[in-house]
Design brief:
The structure holds 2 protein chains of 2 kinds. By secondary structure, chain A is an all-beta fold. Chain A contains no helices and 11 strands. In chain A, strands 2, 4, 5, 9, 10 and 11 form a 6-stranded mixed beta sheet that branches. Chain B contains no helices and 11 strands. The chains are: A mainly beta, B mainly beta.
Chain lengths: 113, 116
Amino acid sequence: QKEVEQDPGPLSVPEGAIVSLNCTYSNSAFQYFMWYRQYSRKGPELLMYTYSSGNKEDGRFTAQVDKSSKYISLFIRDSQPSDSATYLCAMSDEDNQGGKLIFGQGTELSVKP
Amino acid sequence: GAVVSQHPSWVICKSGTSVKIECRSLDFQATTMFWYRQFPKQSLMLMATSNEGSKATYEQGVEKDKFLINHASLTLSTLTVTSAHPEDSSFYICSARGPGVPYEQYFGPGTRLTVT
């Protein structure tokens, strides 16, 4: 079993839809949870960062962490064609080796106009 | 802020030659940089962790003598792929730990290496 599981998709939605992206994990020591967006042939871009459980909102993006279920989500409201990209979840624990991140496989999202 | 650059963005080299890729943090000091490799439609695979002024820590299965990493300053780390072969063709991405919380990483734009 991988430490972090993420549905690779691809996921296709119409413009304006609400998108839900999810990751599950097995290591209960994870405390830091990140979502990255990666456009084709580009480096990942940090979207959201959350420490421990709870919700965090930034514009059209909401990140949720449920540590009891070992489940994290990223919601995108009013999705736009420019949101078409691969979304990677990543996580780390406090005692880890200087900030080493464990990544999910990435979900490929396509928003159709 | 928190910009990381990589050079070159794309390189083609002949089998058996060596290629150096540079990673720079442009507006902050990065005590730790990370090197990743990514194959098409796959996630990032961490190759090594690089701390300024010390030897890099390589992940299991990554050949130290093939992928030479040097973190000479707080803003520059280099990855040299020695005696490159076609199977080394990949997308190489570096990241640097940001100035904020310890687990934020900022990624470079990546370098596409093609070995012919």
